[in-house]
Every structure is written in C-alpha cells, then in structure tokens.
Amino acid sequence: MKARRDEVVVTGVGVVSTAGPTADDLWNAVEAGRSGTRALTFEPHGEPSIYGGRAEIGVEDLDERARKRLDRSGLLLLTALRQAWRDAGLDRGPPADPERVGIVTGSSLNALSSMFNEHDAWLRQGTEPRPSELIRCSAGAAASFAAWSLGIGGPILSLSGSSVTTACALGEAWSKIAAGWLDVCLVGGAEAPLHPFICRTFQRAGVLAPGGPEAFRPFDRRRCGTQLGEAGAAIILESREHAERRGAPACADLLGFGTAHDPSFSWTSPDPDGRGLLRAAQRALESAQLTPREIDYVQLHGTGTRANDAAEARAMGHLFGVEEVGRIPAAGTKPITGHCLGASGVLETVTAIGAITRGFIPPTLNYAEPDANEVAVGVSAEIRRRPIASALVNTVGFGGQNTVLVLGASANDGGKVP
Fold first, then answer.
1. Which of 83, 101, 319, 322 has its CA 20 to 30 A from that of 75?
2. Contact 113, 195 (CB under 8 A)
3. What is the per-residue pLDDT for 217?
C-alpha cells in the first residue's frame, strides 16, 4: 500500500541482546564493533563446538507471574515490549483509547527450545508435562501477557515466517496505522534458539561458521557461515498525529515496506540472482515514495553464508546499479548479536535507528577481503561517521521469503537522540 510517507513514526524501542539488556547497550556494542558471541557449552553433550550469543535479561523487567507464565523466548519478548512502552513515555500517559492500540509480534522458532527441555526432562527424569505448557509455549503468550499487563484492548497478532517474521510484523503494523485503524502498535519479536538439538541441526545443515567470533564474516571472501543468537526486540509505532497530540518525540519514521517471494523454489537457498529481494526493495521504495538514489545506508541481512550473501549483493547491485552499489554505505551487524532468526527484522531495524540517530555507518566485523567473484557492496570493518537521512533494512528467510523496510530520520525527534 501507499501511505503519506511520514505518517508512521517510531516513538520507542526496547532490546535485550548479547550486547546487554537495553537498546543503548546494543548501539554501544555496534558502535564499538564488539561481538557478543561465545563458545556454548551444552551439558551433558560434551565440549563446546558451537559459538552463539546468549541474551542478558534485565532482572528489573521480570516478575514472578511472568516467570511462571512465559518461557525464555516469551520473557525476552515481554522485557523488550515493556522497555519500548516506557521509552515511548506510554507508562506516564497511556493512549486515550486502548482499543486503538494493537500488538504484532513474531518468532521463527517460538518456544521450541523450551519444549525440547520439557521433553528431555520427561525422557530422563520421568517428569510429566505440565498442562500450563500449552499456554506457556504458545506463539502468542507474551503478546497476550503484555496486552493484559498494559491494558491494551486492540488487535493482537502473532506471526511466524522464518527470518523475515518481525520485518513482516513491522509492515503489518505500519499498514494498520497508515490505514487509520490504529493509533499505536507495539511490534516485537524474540528468539531463544540455543538448545543443543537446534544448534546441532543448523550445524548439520552446514550454515554455522566453525570457530570463534572471528569466523563470522559477512560478505568476506572467506565467509563460511553464521552464528546463532538470542534476542528480544520491540518498537513502538505510532501515527504522527497521535504522537504529536501527546507530545511524544520520534526517533525515526517508518516510511515504507515491501515483501516478495523468490521465483525459484528452495527451502534453504535464496534465488541466486536475488530477484525476490530486489522486488521487495522496489516495493518498499515505491511505498516510501523514494528512489534508490535517496538511500544513504543499507542494513544488510548478511548471514555470512556463501549463497545468501552472494544473492543479497546481486539484488543490491540490480537495485542501485553494479557500478554504484559499492559506494552506498552498508553493513551486516549479525557478528555482533548473532543471527537472531525471526527477531532479526525488529532487532536490526533498531540497529539502523541507532545508526540514524547517532550518525554512523556500523562496522561489518571481520570483513577484510572482498570476493572478486561477487558484486561488491559498500561494507567496511571500520565505523564511518556521517549523517543518514534514509535507510533500507533487508531481511531474507528460508523458503524464499524477502522483506525490506525503509526508515527515515525524524523531523520531530524532540532531542530524542541516544
């Protein structure tokens, strides 16, 4: 859909990640180029051979009721949602009409790790499954808990669609606000994939980088895979009119959204020429009423796998022009957080918001050698200081799914710069 390009704004963010329990911790880690991935030890499965990033949950954001009713991925999500709610100032003055406030959340694996843990306990110790697990591990548990605790009476939607999940959640919320159905929407996602069976499955699929944090090197000639990470991330989207009416500053504008499927089918590999991602980007720019020449920064999906990075680079080459794409500042920040699967869309949108408000292009950790056989995108291992007026955020998922968001610097930040 097309909306007036500046009518949906971001008024709050929340993050729990490998970098720490706040969005500022994430932005500081990105600015410093500091990885949060570590060797994972899975007892009793032997010595650590897999690297990933565990998230640090802020104790002050948890209560006993939440601990009892939500699994780890739900707690990550709830913590991020509450942070974003406070960051937007909605704890001090909630919206006048709670029925015009919605929640859209998502996850790729949802509570799968917790379900595996319960199954392990049943097999090893004879511990019978608890009936409460039916609710605790449901996809919408954290969103329902957040709505109940925050007094939200509007629609609640939970999505699941591989790594594009929360980028699609942002697009869904953007559409509802732009259409005038909602004033405010909480958008969030979480992943807690660090269970030995899940990690081993990714390892067997050949997508995990062997070795330490330095082995995770998106777009580098020597790239050899990704590393998983935990995260909860949330964004408050709001109509500009509603935000201004309550005196809430915006930290960014969400200008556009596009999604498309790869024309060639594969469960795990993208279209080699990046045609689905290209169409998603074109649709996002059309909805934002912008041209490629007006984009100052690209937040790349950058998984570090050979096929995905090559396809993403080709898509960006088609979008900006092969001769020009290397001059468009870009970055892949997953080596800092780990690949957070379905949470990546919101998490990396928050990362891009930090780049816009702080005025820097994030470093792409461990990048050293461009691949002479691939389209060269504008990444660097060094941080670059410059203003950003508009940015693309790419997400790509298993099954040929592609989603792109367009962000803009807000004209009404009210001094809300981290």
1. 101
2. yes
3. 97
